[in-house]
Protein 1
Amino acid sequence: MVLRLILLTSDSCILDSAFRMKRKARTYTISAVADQYEIHPQTLRLYEREGLLKPSRSEGNTRLYTDTDLERLEVILSLTRDLGVNLAGVEIILNMREKMDAMHREFERFFEYLQTHTQEFAHFTDAPPPPEAGALIPASHAVALRLRRRSSASRR
């Protein structure tokens, strides 16, 4: 069991034994988000109904938007306002972005694996063995046999 020392600081951050700062997740109500982005709360509800936003809920069932939700909202608003993309297009674009992010993370993990296991793969860069190394008949004998077959076939 690992024992971790956790200290609460005055600016609502957590300092753990590794001396890393972790921010508590800030949440915002629907009215605060609507005011901040100058949109109607019904628009936020529509985005949630369409599956574009997924705010968490409080015990009283109040929508709570995190900083991650706000970043996603900014992308949605940029696509709809600046580029004229409809909500179906926004959904496709957001799904593609998520898939690209997942592929990027997978590639990074694979690259890290390759870097940590370079010694295991070093033998793949060596020169390949000569073709006759695994042959049942040495190459010089096989060539001689082929030549004999051709010459006997041409005599017939």
Protein 2
Amino acid sequence: MSAVDPVKEVAVRLAEILGALAALPDGPSSARYQLLTERDELRARAAKFVVNRDASRLTTELESELDSLRRRRDQAVRSRTGFAMGMGGSNQGPVGGAWVKLGVQALSGGELGWVNTRISAIEDVLRERREAIPDRT
């Protein structure tokens, strides 16, 4: 009998939960709430695996990943805000600014939410090492 890989176990269960959430009809329900709660708990467990892995990585590796993730995030934000500006942008005053704000908000919690989370995790590891965090430029 082999030992269960805890990382694989979390990944498999997360996939099951995401499938179950997708199958639920739209709208609030106790089943959705329970699945979302379990999903959040599993994500927290998964984050601990990443932090433990990061602790054994070289500082230069972490800095390289951090730089790459920041570039990816910044490019996506520039792309999104450029699109918003093309849709009316600064010539539209507050309305154009609202488009830009919506684009940035969508990136921060939506498609790039995991990137921001990962950036924070790497910065935390580097802070714990009392290493200088590379500048965002």
